[in-house]
Protein: DNA-binding LacI/PurR family transcriptional regulator
Amino acid sequence: MSPARRVTITDIARLAGVSPGAVSFALNGRPGVSAETRARILEVAAQHDWLPSSTARALAGARAGVIGFAVNRPARTLGAEAFFTDLMAGVQSALAPHRLALQTVLVPSIDDEIATYRRWRSSHQVDGVVVIDPRDDDPRMPVLRDLGLPAVIIGSVRSEPGHPATLQVDDRRVAHTLFAHLAGLGHRRIAYVSGPAEFQHTRLRSEALSGLSAQGIAGAVIPTDSSPAAASAALGRLLADGASPSAVVFDSDVMAIAGLRAAQERRIAVPTELSIASFDDSTVAALVHPSITAMTRDTFGLGADAANFLIDQIAAPAPLPDRTGSAPVLTVRESTARAR
Amino acid sequence: MSPARRVTITDIARLAGVSPGAVSFALNGRPGVSAETRARILEVAAQHDWLPSSTARALAGARAGVIGFAVNRPARTLGAEAFFTDLMAGVQSALAPHRLALQTVLVPSIDDEIATYRRWRSSHQVDGVVVIDPRDDDPRMPVLRDLGLPAVIIGSVRSEPGHPATLQVDDRRVAHTLFAHLAGLGHRRIAYVSGPAEFQHTRLRSEALSGLSAQGIAGAVIPTDSSPAAASAALGRLLADGASPSAVVFDSDVMAIAGLRAAQERRIAVPTELSIASFDDSTVAALVHPSITAMTRDTFGLGADAANFLIDQIAAPAPLPDRTGSAPVLTVRESTARAR
Structure:
């Protein structure tokens, strides 16, 4: 069963008295050969221990050559999220030199995400996974640990011992930087239009805002489903309030652009009457008018770092310690100004 | 070698005198077992014709359960392209109910894309591929045909006999609709800031514009690399021209938003002094101010259609005929108006 002794498709074709193309069709389950011919080919292949090259690699102790990414996001909104696409592109850029492929699958829930990890593990379909949006008491972590499936988490909280390693992005500091910028401009009423409350980064950002109350800053958090429509509606409600904020921070660039438009439709001047900022930056955030102040993260680089960390983790004899991802920096643009 | 007779990891563990976990580690090439133990496990596995379940499926005539998508785009600009991400999300939405995964790999050139198809085919790694950006005399088509790799092309030109089937998107009609809208508003000098000239859709859109010369419309095509910077620079050059256009159409939403900003920076009022439109629509195109007139394609639905077409193609005994994708519709927004 050494690689040198493996039978080839040509061998099987000769033994079964058919063309190599017919063998390929039969072994790959493709139409083009009769049921009898297919049965004969499969029998010959089985008798001679034929293995497709991917299995031969697995038996030789090599890898599937595939990294998995189970995406628990609504498919319809995926395209609008620059963070997600930049991250995937960065992951792929790091995999390409290693001839590794990225396998992604959309999952409707965290339970389906966990089931996907189990299936990938049992079928040897992926060598490791990248995991995003960690939660407090995340049910995925003990499962990944028990499966022994190499994984890298992108998140802000230190990994528990024995759990998959985290590429640290320190959302606490990111949030503090952006809210401190607004406080420094004299804003005393600041709102944060967030995504779903169960994400760790929502909690960390909310905590950073409420931490400013000691400095006399009134913070309000409006959780949404991250959609532009919800962001626009949240801004409308905030502006209708008697004590409306003078600065609003949105979780993503698309939400901020929706908020900007909602302000413009109400003839609220940005930034003279209202400052707007975003936790995610993007190409478009820099192109809209006024351009949007944002925390600029090298999301592409983050994806590449995560992939390289995972490649190291797969090769390592034991779980690796957490690493620190590159820190986002504040990019001040036209959408923020001194409070009136 | 029938599935009922296959040895399991538990069988191998018993025969080798180790734990099932050790067998899993050894067969999957993971650390956690000694070299001797690994060798003994691999020997037992080989003696008893152990096959991982994915190979067992292949021998039984089933599929890899994976669809391939080789992406020949610069990784750094991928995230900004809503078309691409929406398409992938749509593909995945159609694959999910079938428990099929999407495998994507970034390729730096069309030659590497072709090499990827050959590798995927020989390793039985994917059951079929989705192919975008068809070209005239496209070298990928005869290769896919010869490999017998099921494929669906998303494009505007009818497939040649024996070549992979096309999901028709009719860019000729799309281009005519958008240019006719501008002509109907009285524009007589129209520019098209395009992507790379080698794409079929660039040619079809350019031809649609030059076809309007019989109606007294002067058209200009400015090819770019599709980047926002190039789109912005192209608009700057057009406006510096003595006979500058009164309407400019961009290939993508991001290019149009870059052009809009370039106009605003020059204090050119959109749409009263200059109309701007885009061949791609997006969430953000509808949110910027002024919002951008665009051809609205259900790109998500197109991806789902392509995936379903490919699933049918994989199951079919012979190549299927071309299908027609849903037609984009013109969405008139704030960025286009009557020519002055």
